[in-house]
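Task 17 of the worksheet. Students: predict the tertiary structure of the chain below and write it out as structure tokens. Keep your answer in the requested format; marks are given for formatting as well as content.
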Amino acid sequence: MCAVIGAEYVQALIPALAGPLNAKLIGTGMVLSFLVISCNGVNATAKVASVFLIFEISVVAGLGLMGLINPQVQNLSITSMYSLEGAGGLSAIGPAVLFGVWMLANFDSAINYIEESRVPIRTVQRSMLLVLTSAFIIYSLAAIGWQFAVPVEELAAIIEDGNGGPIAAVANVYLPPAMAWIALFVVITSACAGLQISSSAAARTLYRMSEEGHLPTALKSVNKTKSPWLASVIVSAVAIALLWWKPLDKILWYYDVVTITLVMSYMAAIAAFIAMTWRRQSFWVSLTLSIPASLAISVLGYIGYTAGANPVSPEDMYTAWYLGALTILSGVMILLLRSRASRRAELSQV
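Model answer:
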């Protein structure tokens, strides 16, 4: 999805590259570029991601500050922005949770980098706390400042079509026409960062599952930079295949797919938390912790239901459900294969 979005905005930035075939070629080039970067080790990956994030944060937070310093929307208060009634009542909770799920995507895979940290417990936990806190501050600043620049009704009504979306509307208020390209470039760098992080996270997850015996041992193969090169190649190959199967005009399909997979991932994680709590804690502690966790599973389940029953595109009706069922089926198959392998190992020892 990140490659498709990145290709769309590269074409918007350079009109000479327009066309569906060029979009596929651009997306393929992006995937292959980040495959090379990922295979050069975690240090190279981190440096490239840092460059993208610094540029994105500078522009996003900078426009937010401009909105606070030089507001264009009058009679607007910060408290009104966080009013449940103003957001549309309780019905706004579902989309808000979905947005939060999307914002947290790939943070959970940071655990896969523990073995590459000198002091794993301290480094990974502090990094997670720093990143999540920084993201909260930066994007809260942007969310507030942008509403002071352009009325929220106008921002919400903007349809993404390669023109930069809401960030372009805010940039047009404060930046001269000669710098209008910045909004498009920010989206490109954001898509590149998302592509790099997602592909690296997927490869590291395959590697970790191979290390733990859930997947074939070949997937834990690493090169001289200690990168899981085979897993990275497989992830990139799947990404390129999707690019050509579901190109730019099918972008809405990716929204539903990502929604159902993220929802199922977090539902499984919360269910595991509930199970662990009942095993290790007293009855009342377990009950107290399980109630909000169960409510979270219910909300996520409803979001997953709407992804299939009310997809963004009518032609993708129930697609998310089919993919969710396929995800469950693949998990069951992995468990069965692992169980069979364990039995064979026990019999060979006997």
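Marker's comment: The two ends are 49 Å apart (CA to CA). The chain has a mean pLDDT of 81.
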